[in-house]
Structure formats: structure tokens, C-alpha cells
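Known limitations

C-alpha cells in this collection are predictions and should be treated as such. Users comparing against experimental data should check residue numbering before alignment. To illustrate the layout, the record for Proton-conducting transporter membrane subunit is reproduced below. The input appears on top and the generated C-alpha cells appear beneath it.
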Amino acid sequence: MTESTLLQLALLIAPLALVGIQLTGRWQNLREVVSLVAATTLFAVVVSLYQPVLDGREIAAHWLDILPGLALAFRIEPLGLLFALVASFLWIVTTVYAIGYMRGHGEENQTRFFGLFALSIGAVMGIAFAENLFTLFIFYEVLTLCTYPLVTHAGTDKARQGGRVYLSVLIGTSVGFFLLAIVATWLLTGTLTFRAGGIFAADTDPALLSILLVLFVFGVGKAAIMPFHRWLPAAMVAPTPVSALLHAVAVVKAGVFVLLKVCLLIFGLETLKSIPATEWLLYLAGASILLASIVALRQQNLKKRLAYSTVSQLGYITLGALLATSAGMTGSALHIVMHAFGKITLFFCAGAILVAAHKTEIDELRGIGRQMPVTMTAFLVASLCIIGIPPTGGTWSKWYLMLGTFETQQWLLMGLLMLSSLLSIAYLLPIPLRAFLSGEGGEKPLVDGAGEASAIREAPLPSVIALTVTAVGCVCLLLFPDTFYQLIKSGI
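Generated C-alpha cells:
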């Protein structure tokens, strides 16, 4: 099988899985086997493309000419493969988790959920492997449209309201800013094809480039840069596996990946450094990091606290890209991986707590570590990964981001990153610590209805297996980051 065929197979597996899931929807076990087989097959195909990409081979596929010079076409480059590796692996883990969660929580419309989840992963593959901005925009919009029903999955008034905010912000920013930036880029350069070093001529007006950069940054609403972040907390009405999809597997990672790709392959690092707007956009990203951290600290609902944490952490990735240095770009790309594993573990844990203990508020979690020791240990590990300290892989991405601020002498941003890490300690670590240590210092352990200390009662086994795998992944990323690091360095 040729490498071009493997690329096209990677694009088609998830849509074909949607068909299989719909056909087997009446048989629950068979439907879930189809999901798992499709996810595992996709991951195997993407892994098989790793070494050819690292060796610098050209892997492309041309599907359709729309206009002269404008085509639906795909080409694998290192950052795209990085994104595809993370998303395809986490599709497997999230499917395992969702089997336990959806059954344990008695969710309705499970066939629709698994089918749309597969379609979302298909859109992610299209974004990851897009050869040009036109192809990327098509799949970017498909991702928005096929995740909207997942956000409104519960069918309640609150879910529909959250879905309206989700759709209005994401469609509004993409049509109002992102599409405008793409059209302007086409008119200015005559091409939308991603190219190493960027596509703009050296004599392009810096003021015009500033306008385009602002349009791109605000237009990629999935990156949740403030003030276009409201869709993310609003979408927390969705089931926890959907929250995991939004925060770790697909949606927000698609947003920051697009920003990385635009900065690196549309503008180019040298051009990006010279654009006047880059400086104030850096400080906007910094403000987003800090403000979201402060808001997260004030949230008592667990999923909302994690949602605002995501807004903050996405700011790290945007900031690293806008630093326009090799270290900053490396830190951003690594943080896509590290945040994916850390945040998906946190959401898995939040869902496990809901299914097993029916708790959603942080104040209700005191002593729950004695009832759910595996879940809360995973929560602790994932918290350390988000904070960026050993023994977790978040250490590496935060290190390179700090190095990027040092190289550019952005001392204020360096201090802001440090302050944000301290705030993340304040809004994450007390949760698992109180879960295990309550009962000391006057606090009482979690008790059941009879007033007795609760026995161990974890979430359904598939969910526990999934959150354990991703928590172990957080640690493995500290010890074995080279697989991703080599891929990133070959693409910068």
C-alpha cells in the first residue's frame, strides 16, 4: 500500500465508521466494537506514516479542483502528523471511556453520539492533513457542525442554550474573521497553499499583515482566545465524553493547531517577528492566560473550573506561536500533546465522579479519594501535568515556553507564565488533596446515606481503564518525549 493511499485511508476511516455505527446501532456491543476497531485502525495507519514523514518524504493526495489554483487537497507535514497521532490515539481511549460512561449514566441516543464522534475525528484528520487554507476551512466548519449535536445531546433547554452559544461564537468568528482573512490572503498572494517560511512577499505592507494576523487570531474561535471564549464554558452542558472531545481530542486542539500552522506556514517565523500587531497579540494571549486562571479559581462547578483552565492553557499555545521563535513554537506544539493528555484525564475523572458518586461541585468532593482512589490519583497526576511539574510531561512544554520568553526578552510574559502556574496550583491541587486528606484538620470524610464512611466504589471498569491509561501517559511523556520532539523539530 502506497503512502498516498495510507493518507487517504486515514481520511476515510472515520466517515466509514459512521456508516458502520449507524448500521449496527441496534446491537450495542457490536456498535461499540465497530467504534473501537475503527479508532485502532486509524491510529495504526497514522503511526505507519511517522517514519516516512520524519525522513522527509512527500505524502500528498489531490481530490478535487474547485477553481484554478484552488483545490481540495492534502499533504502530510510534521505538525499535522503530530496532531493526528494525538487525536487518533485519544479516540481509542475516549471510546473505551464512553462505553462505561454512557452505559453507567444511562445516556440516550448513544448511537448518534458514537457516530458523530467518529465524524468529528474524520474532520480532525482533514484539518491535520490539509494542504491549503481552503481545505482546512472546509473541515474546520465540518467539525463545528458535527460537534454541535453532541453539545446539545441532553436535549434540555440548558443544553440547547449552550449549543446556541457554541454555534454562534464559532460560526460567527469563522465567517466574520477567518474566512475574510483567507480571502484577503488569496487576493494578496494568489495562493493558499501552506509553505515552509510563509507565503507573503518580503515587501508586503506590515500594516496589512497586522490586519490579517488579527483576523486569523480572532477568526480561529476554537482557540478560545478572550474575548471569544464563551462557547467553551457554555458547552460544558454536554456529557463528559463530549467535554473530553472538545478539550483534548478535537475542537480546541484543532483551533490552536490551526493557529500554529498559520503562524509557521502562512506567515513564517521571520515575517511574524516583524509584524507590528504580533506584540500586542502576545499580550492579549498573556491576558487571556491570567484572566482565565483567575476565573477558574472562582468556579465551584468542577467542569466549569476545568473549562476555564482550558481557556488559560490554550493561551499558552497561542503565546508560544506568537513568540515566533523555535523554542516558543516547540513549546506550543508540545503543549498540544501534554495538555491533551492532562486535560482529558481531568475530564474523565470529573465524569467518573458524576457516574459513581453523583457529585458535580468541588465542595462536595471532600473525602471522595477514599471512595474513588484510582480516579482521584489520576486527577492528581493530571493536575501536575497541567501545572507543568514532574513527574509529568507538562514539564517539557512549560520549559520550552519559558525558554521562548527568555530568548525574546519578554520578561513580563515570563512572569505571567510563572504566576499562571501558581494559580493553576491553587485551583487544581486542593481538589485531590482534600479528596484524600479530608478528615484531618476538622474536615469530615465523604459518608453515605447511613452516615458511614463510603466503601470503594469507582466508575464502570471501562471508564477507570481509560483514565488510568491517560494518567500513565502523562508520566510517560516526561520520560519519553523524543517521539514528539523529533517530529516537531523536523517541522519548524
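For this record: The two ends are 29 Å apart (CA to CA). The CA atoms of residues 105 and 381 lie 25 Å apart. Please report discrepancies through the issue tracker.
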